[in-house]
């Protein structure tokens, strides 16, 4: 009988140890079968009780019962702990975001048309040795107007329907990218070759070809002995590359901008037809940019001596160029966030 008592004690110690060690549901199930199963150790001990006398049964029976109850409750508790751990791990695993997981049929985003057209323009100008320059969209009256030879009393200010910043008398949303001409001269000096894509603003009613927020690309080239011929050759090379047309022709008309002298407008031969189409309004030419030789006043404001250096500048509407290239008929689509439009680029 004593050996049975010892056996009960030993079983209890081993069981407690085993349950503590169980790290998953399977090992816990093995423990249940080993101790509480039909041929398990506790069941076998219970069987052996039958062989004992009544006296002995009274002594050992309660011990065995305790062992069985203790085994069952330890087993249950451990099961709950393991289940909780498992759930926590699972929640953690789902929280973890694996960026390398391959997801087929996922809708991919596309580059915005601005990004596309600016990258093309950037490629062409950088291949010609131009650097990209930037300037602030909230600009001072000085850079937007005065330094560009447009003093406050100048009638040319009427050309630019300016959005002024109400709390600051001399601040505005730049009406063109030309203020970056003077900023680039100040920052980089001469000789200089920069192009400036950027957002511009005008207080205007919107329609299919006008928006109060649009973009321009400015070009500025300064060196010794720069002439109109360089301007024409550069615009021809740029437009031919952009439209992938070999014998694109340039047409120059006299125009007026206070910051260039002489001032010009540059048109290019329609890349889509030879006899006249709706895009070139049957004229064979498309009007695109303002340009000219940089006015001496502007060079001086930029800290460059007009007796040594000369330069040309040009500016055109980025949306207008993209609309011609891609056959887009409404400028408002650029900021419309219409997926059916944006997805095409
Ligand atoms: N800034 C002018 C405009 O917005 C365009 C231009 C740029 C004209 C450079 C001449 C030279 O109308």
Description:
The protein has 345 residues and is of the alpha+beta class. It has 2 domains: 2-95; 113-342, BirA Bifunctional Protein, domain 2. It has helices at residues 2-21, 25-36, 41-49, 54-95, 113-127, 141-144, 179-188, 228-243, 296-301, 318-326, 339-342, and strands at residues 131-132, 138-140, 163-164, 171-173, 192-201, 213-223, 250-255, 260-269, 285-294, 310-317. Strands 1-5-6-10-9-8-7 form a 7-stranded mixed sheet, sandwiched between helices. A hairpin with a 4-residue loop joins strand 7 and strand 8. The model has no long low-confidence stretch (mean pLDDT 92). The site of phenylalanine has 11 residues, from strand 9 and strand 10.
Instruction: Please report the distance between the alpha carbons of the first and last residues.
Output: 90 Å
Which small compounds were modeled alongside the protein? phenylalanine
The total count of helices amounts to 11
Instruction: Estimate nothing, just give the exact number of structural domains.
Output: 2
Strand residue percentage: 15-25%
Calculate the mean pLDDT score and round it.
Answer: 92
What gross morphology would you assign? Answer: rod-shaped
Largest sheet: 7 strands, mixed
Structural class: alpha+beta
Give the strand tally. 10
Report Rg.
Answer: 42 Å
Low-confidence regions: none
Q: What pattern of helices and strands is seen along the backbone?
A: HHHHHEEHEEHEEHEEEHEHH
Summarize the topology.
Blueprint: H1 2-21, H2 25-36, H3 41-49, H4 54-95, H5 113-127, E1 131-132, E2 138-140, H6 141-144, E3 163-164, E4 171-173, H7 179-188, E5 192-201, E6 213-223, H8 228-243, E7 250-255, E8 260-269, E9 285-294, H9 296-301, E10 310-317, H10 318-326, H11 339-342
Parallel strand pairs: 1-5
Antiparallel strand pairs: 2-4, 3-4, 5-6, 6-10, 7-8, 8-9, 9-10
Helix pairs in contact: 1-4, 2-4, 3-4
The structure holds phenylalanine.
């Amino acid at each position: 009988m004593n050996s049975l008592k010892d056996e009960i004690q030993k079983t209890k110690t081993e069981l407690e140890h085993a349950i503590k060690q169980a790290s998953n549901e399977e090992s816990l199930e093995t423990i249940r079968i080993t101790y509480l199963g039909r041929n398990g150790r506790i069941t076998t001990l219970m069987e052996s009780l039958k062989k004992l006398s009544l006296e002995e049964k009274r002594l050992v029976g309660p011990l065995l019962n305790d062992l069985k109850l203790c085994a069952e409750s330890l087993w249950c508790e451990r099961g709950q702990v393991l289940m909780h751990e498992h759930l926590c791990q699972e929640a953690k695993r789902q929280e973890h975001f694996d960026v390398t997981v391959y997801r087929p049929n996922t809708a991919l985003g596309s580059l915005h048309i601005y990004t596309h057209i600016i990258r093309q323009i950037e490629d062409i100008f950088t291949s010609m040795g131009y650097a990209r320059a930037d300037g602030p969209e909230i600009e001072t009256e000085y850079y937007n107007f005065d330094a560009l030879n447009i003093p406050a009393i100048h009638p040319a200010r009427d050309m630019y329907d300016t959005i002024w910043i109400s709390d600051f008398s001399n601040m505005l949303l730049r009406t063109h990218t030309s203020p970056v001409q003077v900023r680039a001269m100040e920052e980089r000096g001469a000789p200089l070759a920069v192009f400036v894509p950027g957002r511009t603003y005008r207080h205007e009613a919107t329609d299919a070809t006008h928006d109060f927020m649009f973009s321009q690309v400015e070009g500025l080239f300064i060196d010794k002995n720069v002439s109109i011929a360089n301007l024409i050759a550069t615009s021809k090379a740029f437009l031919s590359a952009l439209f992938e047309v070999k014998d694109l022709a340039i047409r120059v008309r006299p125009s007026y901008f206070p910051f260039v002298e002489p001032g010009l407008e540059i048109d290019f031969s329609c890349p889509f037809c030879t006899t006249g189409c709706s895009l070139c309004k049957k004229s064979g030419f498309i009007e695109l940019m303002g340009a000219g030789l940089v006015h001496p006043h502007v060079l001086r404001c930029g800290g460059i001596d007009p007796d040594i250096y000369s330069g040309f500048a040009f500016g055109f509407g980025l949306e207008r160029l993209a609309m011609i290239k891609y056959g887009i008929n409404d400028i408002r689509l650029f900021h419309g966030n219409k997926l059916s439009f944006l997805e095409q680029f």
